[in-house]
């Protein structure tokens, strides 16, 4: 059997304790488009996202991430992962095809990091409604309709208090993510944070290891990231967030990934969103992961600009 | 046997009839760095390129492209392609490892489009000399040293007068490029131009079919493209080129690929370089190629800005 | 008596044959804010404009510019200009203070160029309504609410078929505009176009001389210009206009003024708006006007980018 | 007698204890052009500066600002200021015309703030040497030759420990600067900092009042500022400074002036340079100064981005 492969990050399923506020934030401030709302769940995407949704929002008692969806490279990879995860002794739930709008046959499981993942291949790629459709046939929506107006989903940043050896091994060996950059303790091999991808992006997922007493639950979503095309879009995003009186961190430039960032929290759920651009792509098949020591942590996080080290809004933002 | 795979565009080997002028153009105007010069061949790369070179320049009687290098995903893909091409009846030349600085075991052959390609896996990734090395450990050179200062090589655009069915089939079925967007005749299936990639870029290579009487040889390099990070960098590039009295085309935005462009020709060789940014990435495994009809050609080329349809400098720039 | 002085361009009073379309264009596409609407006249301004309005829009049988308002440096300059214009034999109409919302004591007259000007000093500078007010106390509205979202009005470009010697003399000697750059015939002194200002901008007004048979009336408003802060805002404006299917000219860079431009026409009135940024400021008291010959006209208009020479939308757009 | 008037900031005359380092910084990192060097004094300007120089650099025992030059609106303003300052009991030194290259008849005096100012009208505006001259006839040098490459000088920021009432009164009533924004104590009228201009800029000079024990001498130059055209240029400047291992503060956005900033110190003299763009212009003759309370000081300084409150490099940088 060929090893099943993940193609890309699909979507984040977010529960918020204040749906109205969260919808206001993601639709007006971030500027996502709503594909549709079914049974109280709102399915959103950026103007350049092609699939049905990259974020779902629904009301709950408390805010948390239900699951994070990953699309596979082929249809048979879904059953391939089912078998592979079973072999690892991981309980796998089968989700009825299309029970989540836009998503066909799917499986769900809890990764050793404590995060619930969904894996699927079949998707719907609905066109935008006529009046919102781009005049460009390779673009879903007209851009720049509202707020920050990012192009597409970029990555997720996950925090865990589970054993680093187990978690990084799982992400790399089972899920097939390649380590691109990582932060390690100054003495020894222990990885404190890893930037990993299945695509040419430096990371589709970053995994940060925390001590149990540092985070209130064992698994958190630190942030969800949307991509904008230009550096100035990040500065414009800062202007927009300030006018909404939202606390921000940034703009700044990461050393790790070389990307520009602005962090802003959804006032409904507390979930942090990173507005992101720049950085480099990895096309080389033999990429040597770039190692940063713990003493370089602040530099790795912030090359220049508003430092993410000291800001409240970038701390373990939401339970996953 | 597993199908051999190309990982990425590697480099363009360019012969110029005026080496001094070409070096001035690529080092001062474009702002490439010179890794080294050996036996009269200058090996250049952008500040964010990781491999030994992405362009080589040497003096010749006339300007032409010797070959275009493609790096494979694995070492065994080189022999894999050798066998595959042999099966197709294509003559394959074996190149002594490291006879080209930075490039190990390699093969060369003429594609049915008339272009000479080199395929290899082993590469050197030399660090920049200390005084030019970036303070960032994930970046090769300090950026912004000179001229336009692009980050990395992006793609090549090839013109051919050979049979479209043969050429597109070869690029897709033998070399494994996926068709991302294409221009076709209004009636029928004939492809006039195809944007193809093995990476998440919309194109690593564009192939344009021309009538024999339209181009002086059967194979041309229309342009070589380097990537800049921001839209404003393209505008800054226009300023820079104008100050050097170089003819330009652009800035403008392609509909196809949604990318921003500026074209400028090397006054030494006549080879056109595209300064390029923006556009979208394709992570979906089931991408449906976007079709543009011949009547949409001008729109596909230029969404807005200085139109590439009427400019001399963007015509079949150099023999390949 | 001290010579009366103009401080700045105030506003353009525009009549449109399709008020609904024009309101849609200026509010949604350009992204101006509406201060108020009184008696069918809509008073608009940009988010960084401080005065009551910089554009007024009203329904009419045909589109034309009623008048263009200029604010003086001091209150007594209004009567000063009244006297000065009277001395020149120009009929001056006195406008009842505050009969135009936001504008106090004012005079109106037809300049020798055929354009009707209003001169006033007293203005209202109303705050934005609470929910639209910027969190910054030195900024009127929150920026980036809709569309292109320029910061402020910049200049007007006027065309005339009247005698060039009379008109340029009037603008300079009576109104006090300083000539900053100009286009002249290759042989002789005849000025074809002059960029003039009372501020540090290269031009608050450009005056273009046309032959009588070139323009349908003797006086036209070629365009009204709004300022954006960054080059990328002009590119973003091009995206926005294309999505509204509006014909544009640009983006490009003028040689004269060194500014970036995008032209787009109001589909209601036909009035062209220039989205404008960059360029230089003149603080020197002894500025020597920069002369361009007629043979440099195309270069003066377009340094690089989409040329304004050939585009329909930039021809004598609206009667004044 | 008409009140004499200042037209603009002319230049800063800087003494450095390490001329070689300072020249390296201002020519390579900031990217200024050298007009000429005479008797060990280097005269520099930005590519868009029109006058002979906007900065002079010379070797000294210690680093300090010799004087800051202001150009008047008319030739007779020089003697006008001489008389006016004499009436105020201020000792005025007459400088031999052209003894400073590029500067004609001039006077020098110590302002009550403790800073030495030079006032003059006659200037030379030398063209750039042929190979560095812009192809644009309204631009001095080709842009983007080296480093940050700003367009022009913008403003100076001065610190003083002298009496605020005396100093602000002098700048406004004698020198004719208009107060545009200011920071005041929460209770009472005492001004802590004032942004003042004679041009349409929000400030040609900022004056910050410090307690005697806060600054080592009674008069300091906090920074000298050069203008870049675009927001992204400030981000690019941050990249450049980091590659030179220079300590920076920013990028960030001031609330006061709404401008973007990056601060970087000359490693030779310790003089801080602000790379600056954005912000608003004031054309209104009746501008009401915007007041910020002491409790808003941090907000006034930094709207978003890297805060200037905590950084060492932005503290009273050089004696004046």
UniProtKB/TrEMBL annotation, chains A, B, C, D:
Homotetramer. InterPro entries: Glyas_Bleomycin-R_OHBP_Dase, Glyas_Fos-R_dOase_dom, GlyoxalaseI/FosfomycinResist, VOC_core, XylE-like_N. SUPFAM superfamilies: Glyoxalase/Bleomycin resistance protein/Dihydroxybiphenyl dioxygenase. PROSITE patterns: VOC. The keyword Repeat applies. The keyword Thylakoid does not apply. This is Catechol 2,3-dioxygenase. Keywords: Aromatic hydrocarbons catabolism, Dioxygenase, Metal-binding, Oxidoreductase, Repeat. It holds the Pfam family Glyoxalase. Residues 8-122, 152-278 form the VOC domain. Belongs to the extradiol ring-cleavage dioxygenase family. One of its GO terms (molecular function) is metal ion binding.
